[in-house]
Amino acid sequence: MLCMRHTPPIIQFNKILDSFAKTKHYSTAVSLSHRLELKGIQPDLSTLNILINCFCHMGQITFGLSVLAKILKRCYQPDTITLNTLIKGLCLKGQVKKALHFHDKLLAQGFQLDQVSYGTLIYGVCKIGDTTAAIKLLRKIDGRLTKPNVVMYSTIIDALCKYQRVSEAYGLFSEMAVKGIFADVVTYSTLIYGFCIVGKLKEAIGLLNEMVLKTINPDVYTYNILVDALCKEGKVKETKSVLAVMLKACVKSNVITYSTLMDGYVLVYEVKKAQHVFNAMSLMGVTPDVHTYTILINGFCKSKMVGKALNLFKEMHQKNMVPDTVTYNSLIDGLCKSGRISYVWDLIDEMHDRAIPANVITYNSLIDGLCKNGHLDKAIALFIKIKDKGIRLNMFTFNILFDGLCKGGRLKDAQEVLQELLDKGYHVDIYTYNVMINGLCKQDLLDEALAMLSKMEDNGCKANAVTFEIIISALFEKDENDKAEKLLHEMIARGLL
Questions:
Q1: Would the pLDDT of 143 be above 80?
Q2: Which parts of the chain are PPR repeats (predicted)?
Q3: Do residues 49 and 82 lie in contact, with contact meaning Cβ atoms separated by under 8 Å?
């Protein structure tokens, strides 16, 4: 086109530039626009809008603003597409305050913005977690700058629900109805999710029924929210009712629906029913994904059916499915609990080869397995190794090793671990102290146990009934009756008996 004798109009070039922008080849569009200008072909407002869009998506907001300056210099009138693109670009870059300042500047210069502009600004403000500012912005524009719409309200309702401020979200939902703004499937789904995460399932189901009465068709996402909430509550039977309604409404279940139902069955230890759902998926034309396999592998491991879990894991390999960290962790935990430690090292190597990072959960399972199978030296060596690797350990890691050492009679090593915890400022809980006191009592080190009782209370950890019972039982067994009775009276005085 550039080489043609009669150069085509700019609109034809714009079509090409726009096609590159729509296919996310932003740098190509920018490069081609430079070639146009070098040939002396003047851009129009559409060309410059395409350029702003490209720069914004490339995160180069400064260049986008320089194009706006060029628009004004050429005496073009920026339209809402120009301004909305820049506002969106600033919000995508996380520069929400700059977007709000830009908005104020535009208003001061007499520009008018539309619902898309304010919908974008509200989304940006909500994304940074400032729902109060989003509501203030909604109040500011209401009836003065533009008419609020369902998108604006739904965005704020979604943000409020994510922060479990469901009462406020429902207040906005009711306000919409008063103002004649009709809630859509997104609004309802968002609010249903909100009620579910705060445990108000009755209200969530009530909203679903309201949708049906108003002929607002719930989609698979809406149903999945309810299925997930019911399953997490262990109400798998009630889930079947939701699925029946879903089927009646001709909404096709997807992989998330089936996976969620499987997870519900695993939660209530009905792994065979989870397996039945897994087998039914392919018959319904739904392909299980990595998450689906992981749920069933986890279920088999929890039900001590590690052989079936391994077979399923092999099936994933046969189907060229790449397990994720959660898959490996589920299987490693199951193998460790069943004493099949030799398999675990192969899985750790496989994770390394696949560049799938083992995390603290992986190592916690392995340390626990080593401790419970009498490999305390290997557990200590692994503990030191992962510390040297810079993997952030949690309290569970220390407690697992601590418990293993105490039960294995390695009290000196256990005391070193306890001291390390205290030195590093960890909040040592009652469980840790009870394990240590129990270990000392089993070794007949009763004076040390009593000293540990004083130490824990000096460190701000109050002894509970279990602590006293461990020491009192040990004292009575060794005929230290006076000390035992003294502790018994103290226990009664504290209201622990």
A1: no
A2: 44-78, 79-113, 114-148, 149-183, 184-218, 219-253, 254-288, 289-323, 324-358, 359-393, 394-428, 429-463, 464-497
A3: yes
Q: Rounded distance, CA 55 to CA 51, Å?
A: 6
Strand partners, 146: 142
Count structural domains, the chain: 1
Q: What's the rounded Cα separation, in Å, for the pair 443 and 467?
A: 16
Domain range holding 21?
Answer: 1-111
Helix axis angle for 430-442 and 465-477, nearest 10°, is 10
What's 37's domain CATH number?
1.25.40.10
How many Å is the maximal CA-CA distance in the chain?
A: 112
CB 222, CB 190: distance < 8 Å: no
Q: What is the C-alpha separation between 74 and 44, in angstroms, rounded?
A: 9
21, 287, 426, 438 from 409: Cα distances, Å = 68, 51, 24, 11
pTM: 0.79
What's the CA gap between 456 and 434, in Å, rounded? 10
Q: Give the CA dihedral 450, 456, 461, 467, nearest 10 degrees.
A: -30
Residues making up the chain, counted from first to last = 497
Type of residue numbered 235: K
Query: Are the beta carbons of 372 and 404 closer than 8 angstroms?
Result: yes
For tokens 């007949």, the residue is 444
Average pLDDT value for residue range 242-255 = 89
- CA 355/CA 373 separation, integer angstroms: 29
Determine the residue type at 495: G
Place of tokens 């407690």: 399
Distance CA 51, CA 435 (A): 66
Confidence of residue 428 (pLDDT cuts 50, 70, 90): confident
